[in-house]
User: Fold this.
Amino acid sequence: QVQLVESGGGSVQAGGSLTLSCVASGNALSNYCMAWFRQAPGKEREGVATMGRGGITTYADSLKGRFSISKDNVKGTLYLHMNRLKPEDTAMYYCAAILGWPCTLTRDYSYWGQGTQVTVSS
Assistant:
């Protein structure tokens, strides 16, 4: 069982930056494929980025260059750094984990956090 707790969401103006954090229980960051997803009101959940056990990352094409994913294994924390935010980035952001390979956004993730809200105003 993996527990994930997100934080760092908030309200920001367009063009601003935010960093989200996800604290993972145990050695999840060392053993699991980790990912960030988001879901805006009335829209389907969307994959944002993944971080494999070895540090390999993947991103949704539309977010490359603005968003970056990182982790600190010592702190047991996954991060999502978001820059040049746009109103369309407004969503609930979720951290997720799954065992095994490949570490991609299309997998059916096993564990989810409760989410943290990001609101970007124009």
